Amino acid sequence: MKRLFPRAVPEALIALLFLGCSPSSNPKPGAPVLTTLSIVEPASAGGSRWDVTKDTPSCPATYADGQDCDPTAFAICELDKNVVCHCDGTDMCTPTKGSLTCTYAPGSVVVALFDRILDTTAFDTKTPVATLTTDPANPAASAAADYSSAGSMTGLVFPDFFGVTGPTITLSGAPALPVDSTVTFVLDMNTVRAKDGKTAFTGSGPLANGTIAFKTGDFTVVSIAVPTAPPPMDMGGDMTPAAPTCPDAAMPMEMDAGADAAEGGTPDAEASGDGGTPDAGASADAGAATPPSTDVPANMDTGTVTITFSNPVEMAVLDHITFTEDGQPFTAVTVKSPDTTMMMTFPVTTIVYAPKTTWAHGKTYVVTVDPTAEDVFGAPLGGQGASATFTMAK
Amino acid sequence: MLTNLHFKTFSTTRKRGQMNRIRGIVLGVAVLAVSAVLGNAAWAQETTGRVMGRVADKDSGQAMGGVTVIVQGPQGEDATVTDDKGQYQFTNLAVGTYTLRFYVANTSTQVEQPDVKVSAQKTVRVNAQIASQAAAAAQQTYVITGKAPTIDVGSARLGFTFDQDFTLNLPVEPNYGAVIQKAPGAFVDGSGNVSIGGATGLENIYVVNGMNVTGLRFGNLESGAPSIGGGTNLPTEFLTQIDVNSGGYNAEFGGAMGGVINTVLKSGSNEFHGSVFTSWAPYWLSADPKIIPVVGSAVAGQHRRDFDDRIGLEVGGPLIKDRLFFWAGLAPQLTDSHVFRLTYAQQMDGSSKLLPDDTQRLNETRRTYSYAATLNYIPKPEHKLELAVFGTPSFNNQLRSFQGTGTEILSAFPGPDGNGPTTWAQEQLTKTNTDASAHWTSKLLDRKWQLEAIAGFHSEYFNDRSPSDKLNHLNQIQWWNNDLGTLEGLPGCEGGVCPVNPYYFTGGFGQITKYTGNRYSGELKSTHLFEGGGRHELKYGDQFSLSTFDMNRNYSGPPGGHGLVNFYPDGSGDYILQSQNTYKLNPGQYITDYPARTPWSDLANPQGTNYVDNLHANVKGILNSLYLQDSYSPAPLRNLSINVGARYELQNLYDAQGMAFMSTNNIAPRVGAVYDPFNDGRTKISAAYGQFYEAVPMDIAARYFGGENFIARQGVPLSACNNTNAYSWTGNGEWAHCSFPPLGSSMGDAAGNFNAMPQNFYSNTYNTPVAQSHIQGQYHNEVVATLEREIMEDTTARLDYTHRWIGRVIEDGYGDPSLFDVLANPGEVPKSALDDVKNAATKAQADADAAAAAAAAAPKDQMLANQAASAQAKADFAKANVTTLQTLANAPKPERTYDAITLTIAKRFSRNWFARASYTYSRLVGNYEGLYQSVNNYIAPNGSNAYDTPDLYLNNRGYLSNDHPHNAKLDGFYQHPLGPGKITLGLSFFARSGMPRNYISNLVPGTTNQIVFLLPRGTAGRTPTETQLDGHISYAQKMQRNMTLEAFVDLFNIFDQQAALTTDDNWTFDAVAPIVNGTKKDLAYAKNISGAPAQQNKNFGNATSYQAPFYSRLGLRLMF
Q1: Confidence class of residue B58 from pLDDT cuts 50, 70 and 90?
Q2: At what angle do helices B862-890 and B831-857 cross, to 10 degrees?
Q3: Neighbours of A174 (CB within 10 A)
Q4: A vs B: CB pairs below 8 A
Q5: Which helix (H) or strand (E) element contains residue A220?
Q6: By three-state DSSP, how is residue A95 classified?
Q7: Is the pLDDT of residue B131 over 50?
Q8: CA distances from residue B656 to B512, B653, B762, B791 in whole angstroms, order as listed
Q9: Smallest Cβ distance to B1072: which of A23, A26, A150?
Q10: Which positions ≥6 away from B658 have C-beta within 8 Å?
Q11: What integer pLDDT is reported at residue B433 of this predicted model?
């Protein structure tokens, strides 16, 4: 039979027909773009987040840390090169009134957000991808980086509901950030690269060199959470405070409910670093006209005490925490978390105590962190320390 | 969608003398003259086929006009006369084997061509050469010893035909749904149905005797799967032919984006024929299936067969010879099997340890009583009537779930009626399909005009509930993230080493589903033959169907309290209660229309306005299709046919209130050409292009537009209930005993736990506008090309090329955080639709502003305040629709591109043997699987998760699950005389590539939304290559005249190759966003939504299903 086609034609046709069938899933070519550098404070300090983008402006020359600013003009600005400050409203009835803050909780981290995934070589080999410098230079700390490959801005559920907007590198201090310092993180152009392993990331505006700096706050006891009476059942668990009214407010403002009091939970007792006596128990912010008894119900006699510091502490801090029962030293407590039998579980920022048996009914307990308690760098708490009190119902 | 019965007429131009040997009925026909020859002839899908050809002088090659041609077959004879070009054609021939005889006028010369196989939808060319002068002198009869061609020269369609030779002599399951997977490139996908041409198994249509019997709800075929019904699947003993059309249909056919499966019931002939058959598949001739333990889950099951028995008979014959024929068949199938529940304790090293003392057995029974009957009336050869009735009543008791059947749990959860846990695990499933059709054909005006009328009725009844009525009246409780040690106190499971994921059931049955669906169909079709620069066959018609679907769904529970209860450990030792209920709003109603009665107050008050125990979705659909096509053979080139046509389809779907939420107007062009270069019926070159629209199944109407709403009450502590010991609950309406915290109050933790959402969470999927305006139909484009040649007698070689690509889809999606669902054309939303929703939002906000102003003016008027709240809710809803529709407009265009080349060698049965071999190389790439979603085994046609949120667009493109690049098949049998009978040996083999695997994560924590492509689709490798060899041995012996007894044994999966068909692709159950265009290396850096490293599923990559193990079937047939 006569050949219908030249010999090579069928093979060529097949190749042509299937050309383009193979799906490509290569990352977008080119340099990864650093889109945001965010300072994120720990949840214990409110969990606030400030985003530096290519459009973040410089602060007006007249601005300085702690001075007045106009929150309606901008929420965040660069005071000095790469030093980030934020302008917070101070008067809900005067939106233009605010105060410039350049100090952040020492447990803060920096999150660098990219528009595409990165080469993982540096992360695989534990090569530093960022440097940390501190002012003053001592105590010294290094930068720790945690890369997350997941996420994209173009989603709905992940960005909108869970804040996962793209590949990120989370930078933190190792072992922590020193308190009361100016810290500067700089992403390494040689290690933060595109998937091709060659192309360095890019950024523009304040993000051009992948650098961010901010001041860290003091070492403090953020909170001491003690057993506390639950809110009355008729409150229904709805603890949303009423919106304040301004004298000439055109519209009510919706308040952020903040940390809701979980039913039966343990609301934080505000502790002050300057030795002030924090409120304890339900008397903290119930907002009720006639507060119910603040005595802790007897059936909660195994409740825990949670102490949260603004910066990590070593195991030695336990020596600076004491309990009293009706004014007498009380030692029948145990550290529930972290595991004190394992040194590697320190440093931590949160320590949880529980009674070895129960809190005695009708007794009043005081938890005290003395002012000589130190963070992981040896910075003392100072002032009068911190304390909290609770009383068990009879 | 309807398919049609199609009969063609042809013209006669000259009268010829009558033949003495021809009966009177044929004489009348013989005086008609043939006017033209059908160079093409559109293929006629349906129950009949055609024969055409050319008669020429053997010596001179000149066309011989006026030759009388008689065709003799199972239902009598028909005759015609060749035209002046020597052409003739017979249409409307029932499937079977025929003899053609050619008589030259005024001589006694007779040429005979025996053994002409006529198949439904096919045109075979049988040419004859007659030595007229010599024959005139010799006065003799010539029998053509060469075999008639088998190539279908009438159409460009791609397809494959299975006749009784195939089904009787090869090892195949005895129903047509199983046979069709033998077609080249076809395979059963995860939907349980056969994938054809890159489509999912839900995109075929199934036709029996010209009537659409496709499943109303999902567009599937009944396949025996639990908890789901389907279209009518009949025993092979009832069918004379099974045809798989996988592409290249003409305009008269539509409604499928996969293949058209056309089957023909047997019909009576002038002789009595029939068979009595029985088969037995005993457990002792089968291997045990592999157990599928799941790392990280304590419960597994093993299915074992007890027996699968069939016994039946079918018989047909004449009631009035040549006029009236009957055929009837009955084939009960009785199947028993059992399932063992096996429990495993998880070991420290990640392995599982079987707990041998906890093996529980559940017996299953399935009974199906298939029946069918046909009646054919042929008052004259020009007029035919066929009536058919058939059905498949089915009654099953089978496994529903083993995730809640522990014996020990009876102490905490007393079983109802003392039936014990196995009753809990069973479902009582009734599935009854009933079909009837009538088909009339008339040839008029000297056979130049053919009229057909078809009427059909397809009905499905489905009822899925517990065999224990008491269980149907108890709430079901789901225990999330729990373990058998806690729930059942199972020895060996202490310490949480026997997890049950994602949840464990106790209490009542759960969701009960019952529906009745009917499809009333009709068709009128007209075909004209005429000359005009060549031969034309003009065809036009109207196909109409009305589908009604009446579905009731409810959760089990006490009256006024139907619902589910979910318990989530909240991390502190307590449990959190969640419930969900159907909640029906009327059109235009919003939750805010009832400010004084939150849904939960309604739940507390069963007589409330909104809460319903039972969701009744009574919906319907209309599909009306008009088509026009012309098959043109130019005068100078009669062996070329050019087919041009278009099909207009109007599909309306109506919601539970009777309003049309979808009204599509689709125009599907079709063009094609078929060329028989040697004009001998032994070669074909063809190509075709067409657009093919989906006939949207009724599920989307019933589920999304049937009045369903969803309410979940989340974050409620157990302490809110009267009985705070969850383990002491009996499952008897407990949720109703819980207090209902105020709407909007937050009870959960503030750490982003999804369960900490406000307690009352609604998903309102009813209120308008949830369907995009100007929505258009889902379709794909197709180009096919074929080169086929009879390379030796009885043997053809064929090369097919197929290129298919999706043009548009209909899917639902979200684009706004309020998660209002919109049905749309993602990636192709027209501007007019966007304008509509924007205008609606503007108007709604204006209305809301006006209502708010009115309320502000009368602050003490609660009615006005309520109206303002409701108006604002509507405005917010309208604005959310704008965002969602804009998101869907910007979504990636749907893509599903299929390219395939298939080489087929087929030798029809002759010289004692038969063989078919095919090899298909194909690629299937895209971001849209189709009507079945394999990644989470989701059957929701047009309501899949593909466009649910933009998160799911990411990493979505790649090799689709039905991408099996290599697919080879070989089927053949050999018959040999042995002793007084004959022995038949049949073998069937296939090999195909595995399916692409994925890395999947969760979309929302605390749910089973395992639908996120963590890495690009299809990049996790493939499942193993699947191969299987089946065998058939039979011995048949004639008992007496026309009676044969045959004993046979079928052996399936002879080498017991239990390759993994599917694997656990859930890389993590954490909610982890896609790693866009990532690779496996990037998984090490995947973080969940809390920022913690994603916890890898230890069972990832392990098999979740295997090939069926070896089994065999013994049988007897008595054929007469």
Answers
A1: confident
A2: 160
A3: 12
A4: 142
A5: none
A6: coil
A7: yes
A8: 19, 10, 19, 58
A9: A150
A10: none
A11: 97
Of all residues in chain B, the one with the smallest CA distance to A164 is B1089
pLDDT beyond 80 at A97: yes
Torsion of CA B788, B797, B87, B12, to 10 degrees: -80
All residues of chain A having their beta carbon less than 8 Å from the beta carbon of residue B1081 are 120, 124
Cβ contact A359:A250 at 8 Å = no
Rounded to a whole number of angstroms, the CA Rg of chain A reads 27
Closest CA to B625 of B218, B253, B203: B253
Give me B133's structure tokens.
């002068």
In angstroms, the CA A122 to CA A116 distance is 16
Contact B749 A262 (CB under 8 A): yes
> Would you call B27 helix, strand, or coil by DSSP?
helix
Are A237 and B1094 a contacting pair at CB < 8 A?
no
Q: Under an 8 A CB cutoff, do B1078 and A149 touch?
A: yes
Please answer yes or no on whether B719 and A264 come within 8 Å at the CB atom. yes
Among the partner-chain residues A148, A161, A237, the one whose CB lies closest to the CB of B1085 is: A148
ipTM, 2 dp: 0.84
Q: Which residue of A has its CA nearest to B791?
A: A1
| CA A204 – CA A212 distance, rounded (Å) | 13
Strands (E), A261-318: 305-313
Q: Read off the pLDDT of residues B862-876 as tens digits, 9 standing for 90 and up.
A: 888 888 888 888 888
**Quick one: closest CA in A to B1090, which residue?**
A162
Residues composing chain B: 1120
A107-116, B66-75, B306-315 — which is least confidently predicted? B66-75
Calculate ∠ Cα A154-A159-A165, nearest 5°.
70
Mean pLDDT of B445-457: 89
CA distance B17 to chain A (A): 43
Closest residue on chain B to A234 (Cα): B741
8 Å CB contact of A259 and B750: yes
Nearest-CA neighbor of A62 among A39, A85, A82?
A85
Cβ contact B1111:B1055 at 8 Å: no
Chain A environment of B950 (Cβ under 8 Å): 154-156
For residue B313, what pLDDT band results from cuts at 50, 70 and 90? very high
**Cβ contact B472:B424 at 8 Å:** no
Taking any CB pair shorter than 8 Å as contact, residues of chain A touching chain B are 4, 14, 17-18, 21-23, 25-28, 43, 116-117, 120, 123-124, 147-152, 154-158, 160-164, 167, 170, 236-238, 257, 259-260, 262-264
pLDDT of res. B749: 34
Token representation of residue B414: 């007393």
The confidence score (pLDDT) of residue B547 equals 97
Helix (H, G, I), strand (E, B) or coil at B750: coil
Q: Taking CB atoms and an 8 Å cutoff, what residues of chain B touch A43?
A: 751
What does the mean pLDDT of chain B come to?
83
Q: What is the rounded CA–CA span in Å between residue B739 and residue B977? A: 81
Contact B322, B25 (CB under 8 A): yes
Q: Is the dihedral of CA A207, A211, A214, A218 positive or negative?
A: positive
Q: Which residue of B has its CA nearest to A195?
A: B1078
